[in-house]
Structure formats: structure tokens, C-alpha cells
Design a protein that fits this description.
Mean pLDDT: 92
Helix content: 40-55%
Distance between the termini: 53 Å
Strand order of the largest sheet: 3-2-1-4-9-6-10-5
Number of strands: 10
Shape: globular
CATH superfamily of the domain at 4-129 and 160-212: Spore Coat Polysaccharide Biosynthesis Protein SpsA, Chain A
Number of helices: 11
Largest sheet: 8 strands, mixed
Low-confidence stretches: none
CATH topology of the domain at 4-129 and 160-212: Spore Coat Polysaccharide Biosynthesis Protein SpsA, Chain A
Radius of gyration: 19 Å
CATH architecture of the domain at 4-129 and 160-212: Alpha-Beta Complex
Oligomer: single chain
Length: about 280
């Protein structure tokens, strides 16, 4: 019987998917009780990558070809519908396992059947949890590193990185699955809210850790705008004050830009300048 399913959504991910799979097989500590599902969101390299996976890995990997790129939530929902296990992991292609963790995950979920969603830590010490947008006051933004590192506010006010999330399948489905109106970003905060609304638990287990390669990458203006669209939808859905959010963000990023100038950090200057431009536009809506 399959005890745990892993769902990996790919989109032009040939650079990452093979090392991701290698790490899964290397640190698989539950053997045939593990199921791997790959959902490709209509990549340019879909056929070539799937053929390479068939040649180089066991033929029990479930490969799903999506007819369109419907985003993070859409792709993962397709995988959940095919998942055999009662528990599943959503895993990005740029995540690597660095030690066996599957048996620990199952043990933690067996200890508390009310856990609907679980986050993990990252081995490089970077944050795997963030403030939900509706709780991002200026004070919280300034103190976010401390708040998230030391859990200074309720876990209900934080969300976990969607690069590696663990779910109870029934609770996930009862909560309505991922909202496919959100293309990318803030799906984690949204599903967390809906799981909590069912009276189920959302937890963080710092003893379970993975490596996420995305940290420190250069800001992508396209993804910044995609994130803004998702944030707009999220704020409308929860009737939160988005104008106030962006005005606070503007002040905070102006200060961070000033520090980047003082430190001659050109990469951060570019990132913060992009945020300042976005916040100026959004803060006036």
C-alpha cells in the first residue's frame, strides 16, 4: 500500500528535475511505499524530458502531461487527483533531499491525525515561513526576520514556502484543494487559511529539513508582477486592505534600498528598486 505520494510540478524544468529525482531515490527510506507523480505544465521540453525520465528511472513514476500551464495550484491539483496515498508532499523541482525524511514525516502525521498541512525548514538557514499578507503591518515587516525565525506570533499568521509542503489528502480536499484562480504565489497562505477554518492544524517541523536552491536568485520582474496579481486576488478574497499593505511595503523597501546603496550591493539595489516601482503603482489604486 502506498503510504506517501510526492507531487512535482514542472515547467521547463530540465535543469532541475533529474537531480531532484536522484535525491528522492537516494534518501527514500520507505521503499515501495513511496509514489512519485510528475505533472508537466505544458513545457517546451515536455516530450524530451519525459522520455529521459522513462529511460533513467523506474517505470513506476506517474507522468502527467497537462494541456496548458495553469499555474502552481492547477498543476498540483492534477497530481493530487492521481495520488494513491492518504498523505502527499508538494515538492518543487529545485528542491533537494539531503537526508532520509519520509519515515519521520509519516510518524509525525501518525502522532496527530488533525495535522492538515506541515512545513519544513531549509538547511541553509533561510526562512521557510513568512507573514501572511493581511498581517504585514509596517512594524511586522521590519521585524519579520525575527518574528519568523523565533515564532514570535501565532503560526496562524504565517505561511510556509510552497517549495516543499506536506498535506493530509482528505483534509486538503475537504478544504477545497488549491485555488486555481491563483496562478503563482500566496496559494500557501490561502490553503492554510482554509485548513485552519476546518478546525485542523497547520504546523511547522524544524526537525525535517530540505535544500531549496532558489534562495538568493535574482529578482524576476515578470514573476514580481505575477505575484502582485495573486496578491490582489488574495486581498479581495479575504477583504483585506491592499492599499495600506503596499504603502507600508513602499516605506520598507525605500529604507532597504537606502541600505543597499550604502553597502554598494547592486543586486539588492536592483531587487528593491523593482519592489519600489511596484509598490508605488499598487499603493495608488
Amino acid at each position: 500500500m502506498i503510504a506517501l505520494s510526492i507531487i512535482i510540478v514542472t515547467y521547463n524544468s530540465e535543469k532541475h528535475i533529474f537531480e531532484c529525482l536522484d535525491s528522492i531515490y537516494k534518501y527514500n527510506d520507505i521503499g515501495n511505499d513511496l509514489e512519485i507523480i510528475i505533472v508537466d505544465n505544458c513545457s517546451n521540453d515536455q516530450e524530451r524530458v519525459f522520455e529521459k525520465i522513462k529511460l533513467n528511472y523506474p517505470n513506476d513514476i506517474i507522468l502527467i502531461k497537462s494541456p496548458m500551464n495553469g499555474g502552481y495550484g492547477y498543476g498540483n491539483n492534477q497530481g493530487v487527483k492521481r495520488a494513491s496515498a492518504n498523505r502527499f508532499i508538494v515538492m518543487n523541482p529545485d528542491v533537494r533531499l539531503v537526508k532520509p525524511i519520509f519515515s519521520d514525516i509519516l510518524h509525525r502525521l501518525d502522532l496527530n491525525r488533525d495535522i492538515g498541512m506541515m512545513g519544513v525548514s531549509f538547511v541553509d538557514g533561510s526562512h521557510s515561513r513568512f507573514l501572511k499578507p493581511e498581517y504585514s503591518t509596517l512594524c511586522n515587516m521590519i521585524l519579520e526576520d525575527l518574528i519568523c525565525r523565533f515564532n514570535l506570533i501565532s503560526i496562524k499568521k504565517m505561511f510556509f514556502s510552497g517549495s516543499f509542503l506536506i498535506f493530509d489528502k482528505k483534509i486538503f480536499i475537504d478544504a477545497g484543494m488549491f485555488d486555481e484562480n491563483i496562478f503563482l504565489y500566496h496559494e500557501e497562505a490561502d490553503i492554510s487559511n482554509r485548513i485552519l477554518a476546518l478546525g485542523k492544524n497547520v504546523v511547522l517541523d524544524n526537525n525535517i529539513s530540505v535544500m531549496h536552491l532558489a534562495h538568493g536568485r535574482e529578482v524576476n520582474p515578470y514573476l514580481l508582477n505575477v505575484g502582485a496579481e495573486s496578491r490582489d486576488y488574495y486581498f479581495r478574497k479575504y477583504h483585506a486592505n491592499i492599499v495600506s499593505y503596499y504603502k507600508n511595503k513602499l516605506l520598507w523597501y525605500k529604507f532597504k534600498y537606502f541600505l543597499a546603496v550604502l553597502l554598494h550591493n547592486d543586486l539588492k539595489k536592483k531587487e528593491f528598486a523593482s519592489w519600489i516601482k511596484l509598490c508605488k503603482n499598487k499603493g495608488s489604486i
